[in-house]
């Protein structure tokens, strides 16, 4: 009985976490699309606002669901998904996060601003950056607040819990750590757009997965994800054309 309690996170449960996440996103998208048509049939809502609203709703749904799932699993489940203090000193962990953040964004800059233009692909930006640009130009305080809430809190928590906490941690119980990070990063990458920026997404995901392994703490993976999105938000507000 005790052994079973300490081995609650299985690969099946990790894969199910991904399925539940995408199911929530689909349901939220349908609900928001039909809901806005029902309550405002004469007003045409932009695809960007629809996307922001549905992503916010699905993120909240997913966080609530996994908050419930983690709580019902009990405290012995927490370490299985990395909900524990860092196994290295906080100061060392923070330096590690900052070093990884700087390194990945420098490599991302080389890919997006040096390599891609050499192949005739200048000015490629990510889906999130397109949404940011649209809301900055056409939206108001409410829309921008929703986007920042999604980018700096809901998105990082939701994705790190699902991808690193559940999927990567479950895979790492059965296969080598590098393979668990590789598979998780591939799954993470294909869920983002555009495809031409997949190397950047893979780099970020692999780095965040390594941070979880190195520190043993999901909180550190969430932290670097938040800081990465914060950097992009600052770049967006400043209008710097240096990253996607």
Descriptive overview:
Helices cover 76% and strands 0% of the residues. The protein is mainly α and 244 residues long. The longest helix has 31 residues, at 141-171. It starts with a helix and ends in a 6-residue tail after the last helix.
Protein traits:
244 residues; mainly alpha; globular
Calculate Rg over CA atoms: 19 Å
* Number of helical stretches of at least 4 residues: 9
Large-scale geometry: globular
Helix content range of the residues, please? Answer: over 70%
Element order: H for helix, E for strand = HHHHHHHHH
Largest sheet: none
Structural class: mainly alpha
The CA-CA distance between the termini, in Å, is 50 Å
Q: How many beta strands in the DSSP annotation?
A: 0
Report strand %.
under 5%
- Tell me the quaternary state: single chain
Average pLDDT number: 91
What are the segments in which pLDDT stays under 50 over at least 5 consecutive residues?
Answer: none
Structure at a glance:
The protein contains nine helices and no strands. It is mainly α and 244 residues long. The longest helix is centred in the middle third of the chain and has 31 residues, at 141-171.
């Amino acid at each position: 009985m005790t052994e079973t309690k300490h081995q609650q996170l299985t690969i099946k449960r990790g894969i199910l976490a991904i399925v539940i996440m995408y199911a929530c996103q689909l349901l939220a998208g349908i609900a928001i699309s039909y809901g806005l048509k029902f309550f405002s049939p004469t007003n045409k809502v932009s695809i960007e606002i629809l996307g922001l609203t549905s992503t916010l709703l699905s993120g909240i749904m997913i966080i609530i669901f996994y908050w419930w799932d983690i709580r019902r699993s009990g405290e012995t489940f927490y370490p299985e998904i990395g909900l524990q203090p860092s196994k290295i000193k906080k100061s060392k962990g923070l330096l590690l996060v900052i070093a990884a953040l700087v390194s990945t964004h420098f490599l991302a800059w080389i890919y997006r601003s040096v390599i891609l233009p050499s192949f005739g692909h200048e000015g490629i930006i990510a889906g999130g950056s397109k949404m940011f640009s649209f809301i900055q130009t056409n939206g108001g305080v409410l829309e921008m607040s929703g986007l920042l809430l999604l980018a700096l809190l809901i998105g990082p928590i939701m994705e790190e819990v699902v991808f690193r906490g559940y999927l990567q941690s479950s895979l790492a119980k059965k296969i080598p750590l590098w393979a668990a990070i590789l598979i998780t990063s591939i799954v993470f990458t294909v869920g983002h757009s555009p495809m031409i920026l997949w190397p950047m997404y893979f780099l970020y995901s692999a780095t965040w997965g390594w941070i979880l392994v190195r520190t043993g703490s999901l909180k550190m993976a969430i932290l670097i994800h938040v800081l990465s999105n914060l950097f992009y938000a600052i770049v967006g507000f400043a209008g710097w054309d240096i990253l996607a």
